[in-house]
Amino acid sequence: MRVLVAEYAVGGGDKGKSASLLREGKAMLTTLRDSFERQGNEVVYPMAETDFESAVDKLSKKSDAGIVIAPDEKLYELTKILESNTANLGCPSECVKICADKMQTTKILDNSGIPVPRIVPEEEMRDGRAQKAVYVKKPRYGCASESVFIVDGKQSQNDASFVDNQGYIITEFIKGEDISSSVVAGGSSVLPLTINKQFVVMRGKRLIYEGGSVPYSVGRDAEKAILGISKRVVTVLHCKGYAGIDFVLDDDGTPYVVDVNPRPTTSIVGTAKVINYEVADLILSAKFGTLPLEEELKIEGYFTLKLS
């Protein structure tokens, strides 16, 4: 099988040449390429293209299947291109479109009874209740960790954009550990893979992602809750293939979903090294076959990726 792995930063989409994003992109591309090749597949991928979209269009027409890794604000259109030309091994474009809208995603999950940070209404930001509160401000559409800010209520009243709910989503700040889950979803089943520690640091008021470790122990009760919520999230949002879900695990052990990534995330680098299956085999099985049972998945070893 000829498989396209289209990674945005390596492929030339990141014209800003962010060193951190390029390192992440290379790591994810290498992980997927090597895994698909070990399964006997031919792998093609764009590299340093002047027109990334055209490269995806051209290569996908000559491939039996493909997967795209790109920023949320680009992923929908790129996935549509892929779907028009070949079998999409990732999340469907409609799922991608929903997940790119952080406001809509949060509301859908909340209405499904899944723990999420409370969305702060504009009127709360304009009165005295906000003075002593702490909030998270991030772009509503698409989101890198570099665009996530921690802002107190007093600051918000001096920042008109803070209450601009068209451009941003404002939520309560949940104090706790930054973690994520890696999941593969098929047509009839969902297979949680690993729980991962995220290295997130605050520089000024901005949150910065600096890597992570896989797997991460959170205790039996929290692990059960995270894996159960992960399966519900991908089911509610109709995710397929590989997805990553970001959580904050609060001091009481409640996991709050703070972001859903309908694509491979950086954690796939570690996940692929510690599970007893080829990650490419799981992705292909999710699309064309049957996923293993949860009890058949084993985790051995430990992997840390540092980006700083």
How would you describe the overall organization of this protein?
The chain is of the alpha+beta class and 308 residues long. The chain folds into 3 domains: 2-89, 3-Layer(aba) Sandwich (Rossmann fold); 98-114 and 174-306, D-amino Acid Aminotransferase, Chain A, domain 1 (2-Layer Sandwich), CATH 3.30.470.20; 122-172, no CATH class. 35% of the residues lie in helices and 28% in strands. It contains 11 helices and 13 strands. The strands form 3 sheets. Strands 12-11-8-9-10-13 form a 6-stranded antiparallel beta sheet, sandwiched between helices. It has a 4-stranded parallel beta sheet with strand order 2-1-3-4, with helices on both faces. A hairpin with a 4-residue loop joins strand 8 and strand 9. Helix 3 (52-61) packs parallel to helix 4 and helix 4 packs antiparallel against helix 5. It is globular and about 60 Å long. The two termini are 36 Å apart. The model has no long low-confidence stretch (mean pLDDT 91).
The strand order across the widest sheet is 12-11-8-9-10-13
CATH architecture of the largest domain: 2-Layer Sandwich
Largest sheet, in brief, is: 6 strands, antiparallel
CATH class of the largest domain: Alpha Beta
Rounded radius of gyration (Å): 19 Å
The count of strands amounts to 13
User: How much is the average pLDDT?
Assistant: 91
Alpha-beta classification: alpha+beta
